[in-house]
Design goal:
seven-stranded parallel beta sheet; alpha/beta; binds nicotinamide-adenine-dinucleotide; about 45% helix; about 270 residues; single chain; 7 strands; Rossmann fold
Length: about 270
């Protein structure tokens, strides 16, 4: 018996943006291992197929659907299809997040809009269509993935990303409070430096394999517990917040960062 037996869990961005394990991919695999019927959403067909193949090869169940979370029609159609096919939606895990580096002067308006549409509007749209279903059920749990970049400057200009991640904190609180008496909980996770393609892939453009190893080692060393996070460590924290074990937790912010934001080291 798993913690999520008979539960339908939607994960957005359930693929990964490169080789290796991403946060959304790990979350999809982990919920499925805990008995959930996982609904994996992504815009990347190949990445989605890879996640589904892993879940199915472990004997677990998954429905994979192409969905662009920044597109109203795409989200509306996808959520309606999930509800029609599976009958209920128990957990919404909003993982999609686009990282673009640049400060306020050099960042283009187009990139600002793209980051906001993906990271903030994407969560708005999934909640817009999932919340009425959860309200009718009288229960549901939402986990939104923000970042420690929502509450700290991390030494690299990423004004749109940082701002979008901060918006997710209040977005989650507002949902948690509005729906607190309706059986729906909403919480947000602030991951620190997770060892995923999201932060590893950009290195390949400008660095040799040896340089990449040096940078990765520096990243490990700046974390108080001595290493970057494994995406499954984030998945397990999310699954706790999504589970009935967290029945009295709503509107909360869980930092999952190996102690990073508790340090006083500048420019990490
Ligand atoms: N890795 C880190 O160090 C770190 C730290 C803090 C927070 N996070 C957060 O973790 C989340 C993502 O982690 P990840 O490892 O899964 O990233 P990832 O880039 O590996 O995967 C993101 C997935 O989202 C998909 N995607 C992108 N735009 C989409 C859209 N419009 N609609 C649907 N799918 C879309 C991509 O195709 C990809 O498969 C983000 O919210 C990110 O901000 C990561």
């Amino acid at each position: 018996m798993g913690q999520f037996d008979k539960k339908v869990v939607i994960i957005t961005g359930a693929g990964a943006s490169g080789e290796g394990m991403g946060n959304g991919k790990a979350a999809a695999i982990h919920y499925a291992r805990q008995g959930a019927h996982t609904v994996a959403l992504d815009i990347d067909e190949v990445a989605l197929a890879d996640t589904a193949q892993i879940i199915e090869s472990e004997g677990n169940s998954v429905t994979s659907l192409l969905c662009d979370v920044s597109d109203n029609n795409s989200v509306a159609d996808t959520i309606a299809e999930v509800h029609c096919r599976l009958g209920h939606i128990d957990v919404l895990h909003n993982n999609v997040g686009l990282l673009e580096l640049d400060g306020p002067v050099s960042l283009t308006e187009e990139v600002w809009d793209k980051v906001m549409e993906t990271n903030v509007k994407g969560m708005f749209l999934t909640c817009k269509y999932v919340l009425p279903i959860m309200e009718a059920q009288g229960k549901g749990a939402i986990v939104n993935i923000s970042s420690v970049a929502a509450i700290r400057y991390w030494g690299t200009p990423a004004i749109a990303y940082d701002t979008s991640k901060a918006a997710i904190l209040q977005f989650t609180r507002s949902i948690a409070l509005e729906y607190a008496r309706k059986g729906i909980r909403a919480n947000v996770i602030l991951p620190g430096v997770m060892d995923t393609p999201l932060i590893n892939e950009p290195l390949k453009a400008d660095h040799s394999p040896a340089e990449i190893e040096t940078i990765r080692e520096e990243r490990h060393q700046m974390i108080p517990i001595g290493r970057m996070g494994d995406p499954f460590e984030l998945a397990k924290a999310a699954a706790f917040l999504a589970s009935d074990d967290a029945s009295y937790i709503t509107g909360s912010e869980l930092v999952v960062d190996g102690g990073l934001v508790s340090t006083c080291i500048p420019n990490w």
